[in-house]
Amino acid sequence: MIALLDLPDTVVAVVGATDHAAKYGGIIYRDLRAKGVTVRAVNPYRDTVAGDPCWRSLADLPEAPTIVNIVVPPTRTLAVLEECSRLGLMTVWIQPGAADDAVHAYLEDLGFTALVDACIMVPRLTRTAGNG
Length: 132
Fold this sequence. Notes:
CATH class: Alpha Beta
Number of domains: 1
Distance between the termini: 20 Å
Oligomer: single chain
Number of helices: 3
């Protein structure tokens, strides 16, 4: 899945994106954008993130994301995964602290392709381009 980050047509939906500079949803969104990854902010409580449009749900996005990056508490992660399953978005990257036993079981039961408890900012990306 890490290799997907280097593909020019990859779109990463950051669920939990925010303008709060100290929160990981904001840090991750800005980091991926700075690295040239096409990112889409998803947060039902925001209209914009870093000046970019923010969508209320994954279903509202203008295109299907390649990877759904989840940066919310475990209690909300399960609901996000249920939406992913309904939409056929089966490639997810779950940030450290966003999963619990129920999340792990759901991922396994439904056959998601998932990286869990791994930070999406750690892999070294080779491309640097615009936000797309």
